[in-house]
Amino acid sequence: MTSNNNVKKAVQVIVGLGASAGGLQALNDFFDNVPTASLYSYIVVQHLSPDHKSLMAELLRKNTKIPIEVIEDGGEIKSNCIYLIPPTNNLIIEDGLFKLLPKPKDKTLNLPIDLFFESLANHAKEHCAGIILSGTGSDGSRGVRAIKEKGGVVMVQQPEQAKFDGMPRNAIKTSLADYIVPVERISDELSNYFEAQSSIGFDAELFQYDEKLLKNIST
Taking the CA atoms of the chain, what radius of gyration do you get in angstroms? Predict the structure, then answer.
């Protein structure tokens, strides 16, 4: 009996969550609906002042039993874990590991969600999701474009539900959002999407067809 070399091994799904003003409530509502033993990695990118003492970990623990870690430079990305970025840093993924970058200290516009989503797309390609939650401004809109270009999925909190709808509405204006739903439904949509992808077993890089053969079949 020949072995089946087409069986796909489990892949790591990485979920990036971009939030700003009003984002804490949205994050709480999101994680309140995430299964305790989730297979995904969740990375929260939030706009925080460098001198801000973040209580995010303590507040999120009230709504989830998934382990929560503050990211360290060079750290590995583990499944079933929520990652938070230190307030003084931006984040990218480099060579499959977390890389912390200092936030600009001058008046340079800082777009940490765009920055992370672009590196996430390059690293995880179709095995990632970019989620835009409550916030002001347009951070994340460029990042969701990168995620779509690499085959990932984009989900946006329904603007009418968001405490601040600037980021959701700007993400929607890109016309690249796959799902625009209330935040409490996003986790279910994530599961449905990636479970469907897994059951189909589609791999864009492996998918090939004989154009001549296809024409013969169709005639």
Answer: 19
Whether residue 127 contacts residue 10, with contact meaning beta carbons closer than 8 Å, is answered with no
As given in the structure block, the two tokens for residue 152 are 């990932």
pTM score, whole prediction:
0.85
Q: What single string gives the DSSP state of each residue in 44-83? A: EEE---TT----HHHHHTTT--S-EEE--TT----SSEEE
User: 184 burial class (0-12, 13-18, 19+ CB within 10 angstroms)?
Assistant: middle
Q: How many CA atoms lie within 13 A of 78 on its CB side?
A: 14
Q: Give burial (CB, 10 Å; 0-12/13-18/19+) of 114.
A: buried
Q: Which of 50-54, 82-86, 90-94, 165-169 has the lowest mean pLDDT?
A: 50-54
| pLDDT at residue 213 tops 50 | no
Contacts of 205 (CB under 8 A, 6+ apart): none
The whole-angstrom separation of Cα 68 and Cα 43 is: 10
CA 120/CA 165 separation, integer angstroms? 24
Nearest CA among 16, 2, 7 for reference residue 186: 16
Question: Which pLDDT band holds residue 50 (cuts at 50, 70, 90)?
Answer: low
CA distance 93 to 15: 13
Q: What percent of the chain has pLDDT over 70?
A: 83
